[in-house]
Amino acid sequence: MTIGIVAFPGTNCEHDVAYALESLGAATVPVWHRETSLEGLEAVVLPGGFAHGDYLRAGAIARFSPIMAAVEKLAGEGRPVLGICNGFQVLCEAGLLPGALIANRDLRFICRPVRLRVESTDSILTRTAAVGQVLTIPLNSYEGNYIPGPETPNAILRYCEPDGAVTEGANPNGSTTGIAGIANATGSVAGLMPHPERAVEDFMASTDGRVLLESFVASLEPAGTARA
Amino acid sequence: MRAVVTITRRGEIADPEGATIQRALVDLGYTEVDVVRVNRTIEVSMPGRDGEYVLTAVRGMCEKMLANPVMEDYEIEILD
Fold it and tell me: For FRET with B5, which of A137, A194, B23, B67 sits at 20 to 30 Å CA-CA?
């Protein structure tokens, strides 16, 4: 079972994501954005970076890259689709996740570890975590301020204090209700602003990204099997 | 003909850049300024096409890509 990792011009986390997923036993394959098929792949990740220079809006141009039709097809089959940071922005622009991401409240690029509270385990990103679990994972973004659409989003991760309390003080970027990550209604498509792939080894500041990526790997089912 | 698209963020959506400029203007002595919104303009040229054609095409561009319907509105002005 193989995970496709999509790179757009300007994507810069594809190797880190591949490393992290392979360290958890998954097989990965790079997918260039000009490709048009994800045939034979069970899941796909849109990693972080600055796809197409983030011109117009972050993710707005990437959303029309040729590979995105295949990503939408995979998502439509209920297979795991994960967007990290810029990939989350692309999924929102594509309408695969609701809402949008705008500039941080304080107009600063934020690059530091943040604490996240697991709000739901009903997603491909959190299924092996526990509700209330507090994770320390690096955030690395300028446009991480989440704005919901008309409907209440399915929040799976929120910025929090060390004890797990979700407070405005723990909210680094002004994101609505402290949202750091969301999923679609069925949990098969998920996106988050922090970078779990940067928290998987002992030499890193934390290994808390593992539980999220392990959840993703555990969500894989062989190609051809239908998901409920 | 050319079209100029003005893209505005809806009033209820935060505009951190506009808010920062508003505070700076107040500090500068323009104390009556209560709201600043930063909008974006995009100019599109379609040589040899009339205004109606350009308007229809640019409206489609806005719906598909130039504006994000979650948080933005747009206005199109046709230029000569």
Answer: B23
Token pair in block for residue A110: 């934020």
Nearest to A103 among B17, B65, B66 (CB): B17
> Does A147 reach chain B within 8 Å, measured CB to CB?
yes
- The helix or strand, by DSSP H or E, that contains position A16, with its residue range, turns out to be helix A14-23
Give chain B's domains with CATH numbers. 2-79 (3.30.1280.10)
- Encode chain B (80 residues) as per-residue pLDDT tens digits: 999 999 999 988 888 889 999 999 999 999 999 999 999 999 999 999 999 999 999 999 999 999 999 999 999 999 97
Task: Report the distance separating Cα A142 and Cα A83, nearest Å.
Answer: 16
A43-46/A81-84 β-pairing:
parallel
Angle at A120 between CA A117 and CA A124, to 5 degrees: 105
pLDDT recorded at residue A228? 43
Nearest CA in chain A to B71: A100
